[in-house]
Amino acid sequence: MKICSTILELQNELKSAKKTVGFVPTMGYLHDGHISLVNEARKQNQTVVVSIFVNPTQFGANEDLSSYPKDLQRDFKLLQDAKVDFVFVPSVDEIYPNGACTFVEVDSNLTKTLCAKSRPTHFRGVTTVVAKLFNIIDPDFAYFGQKDAQQVAVIKQMVRDLNFRVKIRVGQIIRQENGLAMSSRNSYLNKEQEDEALVLYKSLKQAKKLIQDGERSAQTIKNSIEKTIKLSKNAQIDYIQIVDSLTLQDLELLKDEILIALAVKFGNVRLIDNLLMEIK
Ligand code: AMP
């Protein structure tokens, strides 16, 4: 496994890399969710590139950029074990040299709903850095997690609109044994908060059961989710939304493929989770 910190170094290496190239962008502090994407990339490509870059442009002014967890040596070990070929670990200056002032923005409901309501500049930062990484690496396939469902929808739209040749692959949500969706931010939770955060998956499972039993009213399902989440006394709900999985438009009656998406704060820790479901 080769670790590259400059664009030039990585591109020189990739000149002679065997096709196809699979790419997994991350912000590091890796867990099994990341590794499941790396494993998919490893199965499907000759060459696997993973980036570790805590992208400042996707953090709001009052968010956790400066405290975002970091353990590069541990990450390198996990990536080596997963037989990754190249790790790209650029500095902020390498990605955003002085004077950089161009952004990539998906301008639609996709970047105005769900997480964008409380994080209005987040997706502009994500699309900008992912577009730059696609230009730098020119991968055949790029791997993203369903955990960040809105990010997947936004990236797919960007790839279509800007004619990137990369194909997007989506990996399912990887959970801890207790059901909590894995996230680098889970490391901020104390034991009590982690126990309380289990209401997220519990509420989604209950919603799934309601739908399987025939419920089609979005409001009824959202009420059930809210009731379950409020069993946790410290949960502060940011949003509970049921949207069309492609357009992310709110639904009143469930049809086609739906996304039930949640963002809830436990103390200062904001967690997201979701459920994708085909309505028959
Ligand atoms: P991050 O390091 O948080 O930017 O995540 C990097 C990639 O890993 C993104 O595509 C995430 O959606 C994905 N990811 C994060 N958590 C999970 C999880 N629990 N299951 C599957 N994929 C995940």
Describe this structure in words.
35% of the residues are buried. With 280 residues, the chain is of the alpha/beta class. The chain is built from nine helices and nine strands. The radius of gyration is 19 Å and the shape is globular. Strand 3 (47-52), helix 3 and strand 4 form a beta-alpha-beta unit. Helix content is 37%, strand content 21%. The mean pLDDT is 98.
Brief description of this entry?
Helix content is 37%, strand content 21%. The protein has 280 residues and is α/β, with parallel strands linked by helices.
Topology overview:
Layout: E1 2-4, H1 7-15, E2 21-26, H2 32-44, E3 47-52, H3 72-81, E4 86-88, H4 92-95, H5 115-118, H6 122-137, E5 141-145, H7 149-161, E6 167-171, H8 191-212, H9 218-229, E7 235-244, E8 257-266, E9 269-278
Parallel strand pairs: 1-4, 2-3, 2-5, 3-4, 5-6
Antiparallel strand pairs: 7-8, 8-9
Helix pairs in contact: 6-7, 8-9
Mean pLDDT figure: 98
Low-confidence stretches: none
Biggest sheet record: 6 strands, parallel
Structure class: alpha/beta
Indicate the proportion of strand residues.
15-25%
Order of helices and strands: EHEHEHEHHHEHEHHEEE
Number of strands: 9
Shape verdict: globular
Strand order of the largest sheet: 1-4-3-2-5-6
How many helices? The count is 9
Question: What small molecules accompany the polymer chains?
Answer: adenosine monophosphate
Which range best describes the helical content: under 10%, 10-25%, 25-40%, 40-55%, 55-70% or over 70%? 25-40%
Q: State the distance separating the first and last CA atoms.
A: 46 Å
Gyration radius, to the nearest Å? 19 Å
